[in-house]
């Protein structure tokens, strides 16, 4: 396993992070979830990412149980705040001081830990003053309940404003968690250059485009039984943007490139993301332990310029690059 610094900090994390979105407490039974976490640890993964909104807090509980007994100092545990949790009342979401404080205490209990390594604003809250949000984060850092602060799916302008307030309040904004893959490159034009300037790293989710870049979905064929594209608990809805024959045909062109490089298609996709030096880690999810092991093998893989050019040539017509897509990811109103 390789390790990289997160942002302009002394905090190192594994270049592969195990994440439990759409799996723990939802798609995958607890026994299988524990097996996936064990596979991650066996592969040298030390960084784990979750969120209170995943399976309405159940994912955090499952992860906390799975990591119980591990040396806490050897792990980096990330979670997030924003989405509606609990009974989803009027203060059960967003980035108000009240919700951040309530949510942080709940996450600490469910994760069975005294502190969160990286606490992330899961989206940008247009209805709460940014000053209020950043002050709450600053207080959590000073209380020792949170060590570092990050965000997720913030635009370049939002990152700049957040980083400035963080500096004024005496802490650093060190990470952004965006969707990023060889198919989804919307952060490259604005978010990545701004992040480099500010000392912020990317903690990227969906590096294999919800499984599409593994090549298991074939054009003109029904999705494999039990795959994410058949999951009615959220997975199918997330992956549907890629379930078009023109996309799937292009993805199939990556198979010989992966073979030539001695990689699986999943490893090729994860290694492609890690080729960006502003990316500190790629979050991989799994419903089976062998999927974790496969993805983890992408750590330390270097893709040469010729291979990268061939990947671009294969995917170019179906790649999404519009930077405005980042702004679309955060809801403009905070509704209970």
From TrEMBL:
**Pfam families in the record:** Aldo_ket_red
- The answer, when asked if NADP is one of the entry's keywords, is yes
UniProt keywords (A-Z) are:
NADP, Oxidoreductase
Locate the region Disordered.
Answer: 215-236, 314-336
**Record-annotated NADP-dependent oxidoreductase domain positions:** 16-315
Whether Oxidoreductase counts among this entry's keywords is yes
What family does the entry list? Belongs to the shaker potassium channel beta subunit family.
Record-linked PANTHER family: HYPERKINETIC, ISOFORM M (PTHR43150)
Q: What is this protein called?
A: Aldo/keto reductase family protein
Q: Which organism is it from?
A: Microlunatus ginsengisoli
What's the source species' lineage? Answer: Bacteria, Bacillati, Actinomycetota, Actinomycetes, Propionibacteriales
């Amino acid at each position: 396993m390789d390790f990289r610094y997160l942002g302009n900090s002394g905090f190192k994390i594994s270049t592969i992070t195990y994440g439990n979105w759409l799996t723990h407490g939802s798609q995958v039974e607890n026994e299988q979830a524990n097996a996936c976490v064990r596979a991650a640890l066996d592969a040298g993964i030390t960084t784990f990412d979750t969120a209170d909104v995943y399976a309405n807090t159940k994912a955090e509980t499952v992860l906390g149980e799975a990591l119980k007994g591990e040396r806490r100092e050897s792990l980096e545990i990330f979670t997030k705040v924003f989405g509606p949790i609990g009974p989803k009342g009027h203060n059960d979401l967003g980035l108000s001081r009240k919700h951040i404080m309530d949510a942080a205490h709940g996450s600490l209990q469910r994760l069975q830990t005294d502190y969160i390594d990286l606490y992330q604003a899961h989206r940008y809250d247009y209805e709460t003053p940014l000053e209020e949000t950043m002050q709450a984060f600053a207080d959590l850092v000073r209380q020792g309940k949170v060590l570092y602060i990050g965000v997720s799916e913030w635009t370049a302008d939002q990152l700049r404003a957040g980083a400035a307030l963080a500096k004024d309040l005496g802490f650093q904004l060190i990470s952004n968690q965006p969707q990023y893959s060889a198919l989804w490159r919307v952060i490259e034009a604005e978010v990545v250059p701004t992040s480099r300037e500010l000392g912020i790293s990317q903690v990227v989710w969906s590096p294999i485009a919800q499984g599409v870049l593994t090549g298991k979905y074939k054009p003109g064929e029904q999705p494999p039984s039990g795959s994410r594209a058949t999951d009615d608990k959220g997975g199918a809805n997330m992956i549907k943007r890629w379930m078009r024959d023109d996309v799937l045909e292009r993805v199939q062109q990556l198979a010989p490139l992966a073979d030539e490089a001695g990689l699986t298609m999943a490893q090729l996709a994860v290694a492609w993301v890690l080729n960006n030096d502003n990316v500190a880690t790629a979050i991989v999810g799994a419903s089976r332990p062998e999927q974790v092991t496969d993805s983890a093998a992408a750590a330390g893989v270097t893709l040469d310029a010729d291979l990268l050019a061939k990947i671009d040539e294969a995917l170019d017509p179906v790649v999404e690059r519009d930077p405005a897509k980042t702004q679309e990811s955060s809801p403009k109103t905070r509704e209970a």
